[in-house]
Amino acid sequence: MLIEELDSSGSIVAINGALSVQLNDSMSNTFVTATNGDDYAEITDSVSESRVNQSSISYSVSSCDSASSYCVQTENNMQSVGVEHRGRVSSIVYHTPNGTTYWKPNVPDEFVPVKDMEFETWDDSVNMYNTYADKSGFSIRLSTIKRVKGSVTHRYMLYTRAGKPKFQDFDSSISNSASTPRRSSFKAVCCNARLILKPVPNTMRFKIYDFDDIHTHELIGPNTMEFTKKRRKIGYSERNFIHKLSLNKIGPNIAHNLQCSLKGGSQNVNGTKTDFQNATRDVRLFISDRDAQMIVDTMTSRSVNLPNFSFEYKVVGSEIRYGMIFVPFTGVDHHKKCVTFGVGLIYDETIESYKWLLDKFLKTHKKQPKLVLTDQDAAVNKLEIQWCCLMKTTSRCESSNSLFKVNTSHANTLVQFLLYFGTALDRQQKTQLELDIESSTTTPKMPEKLPLEIHPSKIYTRKIFLEVQKEIYRGMRQCYVTSSSELDGIKKFNIAHTNKRFKVVNNYVVELIPDKYLPARWMRNVLPERVHDISNRYSAEDDEESVIRRNMFELLTECADQLIHKPDCVNSLLVQLKDIKDKVFKEFPSEPPCNSKRSIICELVGQPDTINVTIKPPTGIRNKGSGTKHQVGIVEKLLENCNKNPRLCHKCNKYVIDHDSRNCEKVKDAKEAAAAAAAVLADAVVAKSIADSSVNRCVYAL
Asked: Considering the domain boundaries, does residue 188 fall inside one?
């Protein structure tokens, strides 16, 4: 910004040495505009007659090549010294005799609020002031609502950061470390820019009662608008994006980076990395102490509504705990892939816990499995007496555990774990479906084209067929018939392996594998079609609204892809979309309640806002392999506290090191309880000493 010096009469002396204009004191709010590359400049009144009780004044001068704007004003003891430009946003700068600087937005008159201007609804007034704020370079917030006998009399809209800064008293002459202020900052600024509205009696209309457009802070240009509170607000799309990525163990920082890449830069993304992190925090705060109750209600609902689904739980000490042991029941499907058909969360790795879990497994599946593969846990080894089919292995167990480790973390709540678990199962199911499609739509290579290998290629899955084909070729080249005999119509062949010196190729007479040698569990269509139904997928969004929203975005994407490198057509499509937006916002001007942060989190988590909690919140537990923690002694605690700088607790107004304003009451209660316990102990010691002295006197008397 370039501001020229003013002479004592309030005149612009020179603009780049090419202009000299004398202005009268009666001219108020007048400025000079000079355009680069042109030979003219205009002095014109920047405020309409509705804002200042003066007529519009204009002059013409010549020989000006400056690209800046200047103004001279003397009004309410404020002197205009120039116009500050920040991209498309400009503001008139004022100085007061005491050196204070003020900024006044310089926007076209049609966007400026005027006193007594009326609006049909409250939302119309908010939209108008939002439009004015966007063009001026600041953001707004809804503030005080004044009422008299229950009726609204005034409603305020203020600058977002308007407020009273909280300063901490500090005496620099005192060297005590307790008086050293914390290194912190505040955003509040004493700005009186505001819009006050009053309701029109007996109507739904509002009219402007007062309007102040003087700001005590610099206005924001378009390059930094992304950091305003309005642009940092995260809506449904962003929260849904963060939530979906978190189900795949992608954190908020990477989610923000992905949004920046997808939308062409951070300036097009609502919210910063901190806002994305706070969105994840908000989900945890929403779950909070309702975690255990939420998961119990969800699983109980699934057991009622989903076929072949069961759920049971046992409360230990009136609470379900965090840090529990995850026990998946993993089987092998017809593609020889791991598939999970049951899981358990147990409190500890003891015989009683495993026995309870296995009993519930038998209750659900009605029969004991023929073979169970386990890891080498000591408690499980003792169960081999009751479960004689147990075998110890780690390959399948590690494969199953790795599937869930990709999506989950030990820091998850139970509700989050349930969501991640559903995502992992859906991925497992999709892999199985892809292999089914591959087996049914492709034909494997068959070099020999034997009838005996063509038959299994049509009935087995691809993985099993390749193993069968390998055995067929081995039988052709590595085995031979030594002798044969027939008894009661049954042929008997003696087979032997060849050594490396002989090359034998057998000719198979059998063209089809007998049915009794075709196990059903390895066939293609062993699973019913309903297993892969979309309604059985945990993370599938198949409700009507989700389907409509998804189709809407897909149609827009298809149109945009079809018009690549056709800017005129893309611009025409953009105009149509803007018309649709204007129509939607005209019909629904206010933001719906379902777009509130609380409502969005309810939808993402799949839980209601209000819930009856009968199970206490979980607490952490310790199990084998969780490591040991160093026990801090009294001396170490004292040394650690000596190195801490005391902080001022705003609740008790004391400099302390063991608490702050957030937990002052808890520390106070703990100290009172400790003092009460110490008093009881002291009374007990006194009573004991009195009793001992009485006994001593009795002994002495005897």
From this structure: yes
Residue 372, CA distances (Å) to 350, 369, 383, 393, 507 in order? 18, 7, 12, 10, 41
Q: What does the pLDDT look like over 566-598, one tens digit per residue?
A: 999 999 999 999 999 888 888 888 778 888 888
At position 59, the amino acid (one-letter code) is Y
| For range 321-346, the mean pLDDT | 82
What integer is the mean pLDDT of 287-310? 82
* CA dist., res. 81 & res. 104, Å (int): 12
The three-state (H, E, C) secondary structure of 636-681, written as one string:
HHHHHHHCCCCEEECCCCEEECCCCCCCHHHHHHHHHHHHHHHHHH
Distance between CA atoms of residues 474 and 494, nearest Å: 16
Same-domain pairing of 122 and 197:
yes
Q: Which of 617, 606, 613 is nearest to 419 (CA)?
A: 606
The residues near 626 (Cβ < 8 Å, ≥ 6 apart) are 323
Out of 225-234, 271-280, 554-563, 575-584, pick the least confident.
Answer: 225-234
Find residue 196's DSSP bridge partners: 156, 210
Q: Which residues on neighbouring strands pair with residue 80, listed in sequence order?
A: 73, 94
Q: Is residue 55 domain-resident?
A: yes
Write down the residue that tokens 């992992």 correspond to.
Answer: 424
What is Dmax (Cα atoms) for the chain? 132
Best CA proximity match to 624, nearest among 343, 396, 323: 323
The stretch 373-379 carries a mean pLDDT of 63
Read off the tokens for 229.
Answer: 């509170």
Predicted local distance difference test score (pLDDT) of residue 50: 31
Q: Which of 110, 79, 86, 115 is nearest to 6 (CA)?
A: 79
In total, the chain counts a number of residues equal to 702
Chain centroid offset of residue 435 CA: 33
Domain tally, the chain: 2
CA angle 684, 689, 694 (to 5 degrees): 125
pLDDT, greater one: 532 or 317: 532
Would you state the structure tokens that stand for residue 84, as one six-digit string? 């500050």
Find residue 101's DSSP bridge partners.
95
Q: For residue 606, is it within any domain? A: no
Buried b (16+ CB within 10 A) or exposed e, 36-47: eeeeebebebbb
Residue 466 confidence (pLDDT): 92
Judged by DSSP in three states, 231 sits in helix
DSSP calls for 492-526 = EEEEEE--TT----------S--GGG--GGGBTT-
Top-confidence residue, 191 or 483? 191
Range of the domain at 134: 110-167+184-220
DSSP 79-96: EEEEEEEETTEEEEEEE-
Residues 6+ apart with CB under 8 A from 71: 29, 30, 31, 32, 46, 80, 82, 83, 92
Do residue 64 and residue 50 come from a single domain? yes
* 87 dihedral zone (left: phi>0; alpha: psi -120 to 50; beta): left
